[in-house]
Design goal:
binds magnesium ion, 4-stranded antiparallel β-sheet, single chain, Rossmann fold, globular, binds adenosine-5'-triphosphate
């Protein structure tokens, strides 16, 4: 189980997460719904160890990990697909996929095993393996970013607004990939952020809402 316990995070001198507490069970899928500026990206960056805590803590299976840096969290099996993908333009798709696995020190055989695993889960990717990261369409880039997160995210995977900017056909394609992930990797805990949960409703177990840095179970936080 991955738990945030009264987490407070400052960004640019502004308290962006205010005593955020929630948990993701191993193998469960949660969507975090919130509008622009609510704190979705900040929540994922915090989980990934990219932002320091002002207060509270983060536990993984009971162990306090809030001081574990980002590469250490990747080594604990946490994978992250940022909204803007951040693929390396000069590296081809396969090199982009392999990079985080190299960064956490997996040996060549294990990297290859995971790569083949990701290729079989996301059949869109093998055909792109030699394409430069910078030459991909938006939909292709999102799929590669998902694959890259899965290369290290063997326990938890965080996806930041994966459907943002995708045309409906591509969004459906991506939703199918997530369904396949849910079926074939039942142990992975998934946290997906969205401004509207329409594409993920079928695959998620829990819906959480975030509004002005506060996270709650129901839509009560939302002020129309
Ligand atoms: N570098 C920064 N300096 C100051 N404020 C920031 C900075 N980055 C983010 N913020 C503020 O923190 C709040 C939360 O931002 P965050 O990016 O987490 O929201 P979000 O829910 O991901 O929004 P979006 O849907 O637009 O991606 C916003 O009010 C934003 O303006
Ligand atoms: Mg965001």
């Amino acid at each position: 189980m991955l738990e945030l316990d009264t987490v407070r995070v400052n960004v640019g001198g502004f308290l962006v997460l205010r005593d955020v507490s929630f948990a993701i069970d191993a193998g469960a899928a949660t969507v975090l719904v919130g509008r622009n500026g609510a704190g979705k990206t900040t929540t994922l960056r915090t989980l990934m160890g990219l932002l320091p805590l002002e207060g509270g803590t983060i536990r993984l299976d009971g162990r306090d990990i809030h001081r574990v840096p980002a590469h250490g969290r990747a080594a604990l099996g946490m994978g992250y697909a940022p909204e803007d993908r951040r693929l390396i333009g000069d590296f081809n798709v396969e090199e982009n996929l392999l990079l985080p696995a190299q960064a956490i020190g997996l040996n060549a055989a294990e990297r290859r095993r995971r790569l083949e695993d990701v290729y079989s889960l996301l059949p869109e990717l093998p055909g792109l393996r030699t394409r430069p990261g910078g030459s991909l369409s938006g939909g292709q880039g999102k799929m590669v970013a998902l694959g890259r997160a899965l290369m290290v995210g063997t326990s938890y995977v965080f996806l930041d607004e994966p459907f943002q900017g995708l045309a409906p056909a591509l969004a459906k394609n991506y939703a199918r990939a997530l369904s396949r992930l849910r079926r074939e990797k039942e142990d992975i805990g998934l946290l997906v952020t969205e401004s509207s949960p329409q594409y993920v409703e079928e695959i998620v177990d829990h819906t959480l809402y975030i509004e002005r840095g506060e996270v709650g179970e129901r839509d009560t936080l939302q002020v129309e």
